[in-house]
Amino acid sequence: MKKLLFMMMPCFLILGGCGQSDQEETQESAEEIPQVIEADLQVPETLDAGDEASLAVIVKQGNEAVTDADEVTFEIWKEGKSENSEMVEAKHDSEGKYTADHTFPEEGIYYVQSHVTAKRQHTMPKASVQVGSVKTEDAGHEHGHENEGQEEGHSHSHGEAVSIELLAPDHIHAKEETNLSVILDKKGDPLAEAKVKLEISLNGATPQWLNLSETEPGKYSAAHEFSEAGTYSITTHVEKGNDLHEHTETELTVE
Predict the structure, then answer these.
(1) In this structure, are residues 58 and 39 in contact, taking their beta carbons and an 8 Å threshold?
(2) Were 74 and a residue from 50, 80, 88, 159 both cysteine, which residue would form a disulfide, CB within 3.0 to 4.6 Å?
(3) What secondary structure letter does DSSP report for 188?
(4) Distance (Å, whole) CA 11 – CA 23
(5) What's the CATH architecture for 150-254?
(6) Mean of pLDDT over the chain
(7) Is 210 in contact with 159 (CB distance < 8 Å)?
(8) What local confidence, expressed as pLDDT, does residue 160 receive?
(9) Residue 64 phi, psi (nearest 5)
(10) Whole-number pLDDT of residue 29
């Protein structure tokens, strides 16, 4: 009888170990969704033609400064001339702050868009700069880096009375900047001040994370460049406070 008990004990230990391993795998899976990367773009509102300006973007993940971003660049173009944009590489200064200097040669409205890739995520906040005595009434409304003619995506979720609607252009082409938007609605009202990010993957490859910015109440947008043609899986993650964490999945075809 004692011999039988000794033979059974290793089996219980193995089963216990398996249960613990399954629990750890479940916890690891739940932790795979990273915190949103926040990029605070800081540029001067106005300056004179020929002035050199300091451009900066502060990158954080939660309360932690991101000091090891994979890439941080500033894309700069004059209004109406987005095809002639200039890329300026930024360098890490301290505590997650990345900086670069740039001279604006002539009067006009310029746009500065920072491209931040860090922690398997990508975000691209944009701001305008007035150079010289130029009216800024139309600043920030240029569509040179956005695609018009959006259609409703195939995703429309109503979890916990929250509607999540992904919008994308009729035709999406690889290696071209595409504007993606998410419309959030809760009980008939726009859901504002939420954190929205897209998890984008092709054929099960390591996903890219795209953070969306709120452009109007309940509407969140960002530009993304698909690297190659194919059918992409898009998971929209929505968070607000500790009570709301919804997600929905759809597919987008890239030509």
Answers:
(1) yes
(2) 88
(3) T
(4) 18
(5) Sandwich (2.60)
(6) 79
(7) no
(8) 47
(9) -100, 135
(10) 42
Residue 124: CB atoms within 10 A of its CB come to 22
Radius of gyration in angstroms for the set of CA atoms belonging to the chain, rounded to a whole number = 23
Cα–Cα distances (Å) from 79 to 92, 206, 230, in that order, read 28, 35, 33
pTM of the model: 0.50
Is there a shared CATH topology between the 37-131 domain and the 150-254 domain?
yes
- Over 70: is that where the pLDDT of 141 sits? no
CA dihedral angle for residue 220, residue 221, residue 226, residue 229, rounded to 10 degrees: 70
CATH T-level assignment (fold) for domain 37-131:
Immunoglobulin-like (2.60.40)
Q: Is the pLDDT of residue 157 over 80?
A: no
Whole-number pLDDT of residue 250: 86
The rounded distance, in Å, linking the Cα atoms of 89 and 72 is 6
Interstrand relation of 126-131 and 46-47 (parallel, antiparallel or unpaired): parallel
C-alpha 155: how far from chain center: 18
Return the DSSP state at 218.
T
Q: What is the SS3 assignment for 171? A: coil
24 pLDDT tier (thresholds 50, 70, 90): low
Q: Where are the domains of the chain?
A: 37-131, 150-254
Report, as an integer, the average pLDDT of 51-70: 93
216's CB contacts (< 8 A; 6+ apart) are none
